[in-house]
Amino acid sequence: MKLYYAPGACSLSPHIVAREAGLPLVLVKVDLKTKKTESGLDFMTVNPKGYVPALEMKDGAILTEGPAIVQYLGDQKPDSGLVPPAGTPERYRLQEWLNFVSTEFHKQYSPLFNPSVTPETRKLFAGNLERRYGGIARLLDKQPYLMGARFTAADAYLFTVTNWAKMVQFDLSAWPAMVDYQKRIASRPAVQQAFAEEGLKA
Questions:
Q1: If 70 and its partner were Cys, which of 20, 42, 78, 153 is the partner (CB 3.0–4.6 Å)?
Q2: What is the 3-state secondary structure (H, E, C) of the chain?
Q3: How do residues 56-115 score in pLDDT, each as one tens digit?
Q4: pLDDT per residue over 111-132, tens digit each?
Q5: What pTM value is reported for the model?
């Protein structure tokens, strides 16, 4: 399989899941400004949406959207526990978390990367994040991961987007449980491997 990624972007989530599952993966770095891969390929021919991640599956088909990709990857190694079996209540709970992270965290961070955003708009989106982190921190005070005692694909996604906090000067210190969560996941060998492969510092 081939994962098209940009260092530290949301594509880090499926990268982590693949490494956690022990899946072989060819990495293809994408410049999101030029929409070119390192080899010069026009990335728009891979994913016309123009953003990562994109996964070239075993049959050559292209799958996009992180929450879909991590479920596909987890299903390749069901014994990993990263993704519960299809049709189980736990699988729908995972999908619930993936959707929550996508809409309530990922898309709240996106405007904070835009230098043209006004201070008022920035405050609005930062406020949305504060409310969401408050709720997540209360949960993580009681359990180590989103779904309980076990790390899942949902944690890879939340960890990835929360890792953006330092890039946009969003202070997580008000939620010690969140800070501990980030450190706990960053210390996982598969996460360390993914960071090294993307040239990032954990």
A1: 153
A2: CEEEECCCCCCHHHHHHHHHHCCCCEEEEEECCCCEECCCCEHHHCCCCCCCCEEECCCCCEEECHHHHHHHHHHHCHHHCCCCCCCCHHHHHHHHHHHHHHHHHHHHHHHHHCCCCCHHHHHHHHHHHHHHHHHHHHHHCCCCECCECCCCHHHHHHHHHHCCHHHHCCCCCCCHHHHHHHHHHHCCHHHHHHHHHCCCCC
A3: 999 999 999 999 999 999 999 999 999 999 999 999 999 999 999 999 999 999 999 999
A4: 999 999 999 999 999 999 999 9
A5: 0.96
